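Known limitations

Structure tokens in this collection are predictions and should be treated as such. Users comparing against experimental data should check residue numbering before alignment. To illustrate the layout, the record for TIGR01459 family HAD-type hydrolase is reproduced below. The input appears on top and the generated tokens appear beneath it.
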Amino acid sequence: MTGSRPALDRDSAIAAYLKYANRMPKLADGHLPAQTQEVANILAIADQFDVIIFDAFGVLNSGADAIPGALQAVSALRQRGIDLAVVTNDASNAPEAIIERHRKRGFDFTVESLVSSAKYIVPMMERHPDVTSWGIMAPSHWPIDRLPGDARLLGDDDADYDAVGGFVLIDSDDWNDLRQQRLETSLAKNPRPILVGNPDICAPMGHFLSVESGYFAHLAADACGLVPECVGKPYREVFEDILQRHPNVDPSRILMVGDTLHTDVLGGLAVGIKTLLVTRGGFLDGYDDLAGLYDLSGLRPHFIAPAIGAGLE
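Generated tokens:
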């Protein structure tokens, strides 16, 4: 954790997801499938669904590039008349910017089809009317003037950490060891709310896993004994946003597609929809003990495929 976009190895990321599983959503009875069906790609099961929700990183793209076959898969789903949506924990960019990057990769998603965790940051903060000042983990370009109360970017001044009434962790791009130490020290002295706009522990960036805000939030919570409050996958708001758009669609006809058990699959299972885990190009690329991971986590998807467009490249 020494510079822009610190990295984390996969075994450490898995260990962190397992360690902090008790801070994540719980499943209702009957929401965990008894077994996982292997499929060639998403088209093999597409006729079972009216709505398909995609995670972006690790499903549609890895870093800047579209995952092979993903463009063809999305095009084929459109031809079948299936409603498509994208759910992202990228809270540091405007929806228009996120969609523009997808368009440059060749996808035809619209702003209306995107649900970002950023949408729920202000409502989360407003649940704390007694907090009037906030310390923000975010890049310097992030529009903190849109946030309620006195919001200040957290940097290298110790006084900023002690002066605020709560913290909002949005993006770790400019974060480092020293800033994390300041955060943990301040919280240990005076526990205050820790709100998280991107609860991911890591994200696939092509050839490495970037450490995300969720990882630092859990470390900060360990220092003060508080549980972070989070919006974004696997928490309910982003999924319920999609469900509310399709009130007449049975949840069994809605599919969440992702590359991680503890964000995408857990989030889908928690709201009672079907789930597809992909293993190529994302978090689990090259991982060879999925059965063991199912056992350790107590989670499993309804379906598993190499990629949404495997064989369509």
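For this record: The chain has two domains: 10-117+233-305, 120-230. DSSP finds ten helices and 16 strands in the chain. Please report discrepancies through the issue tracker.
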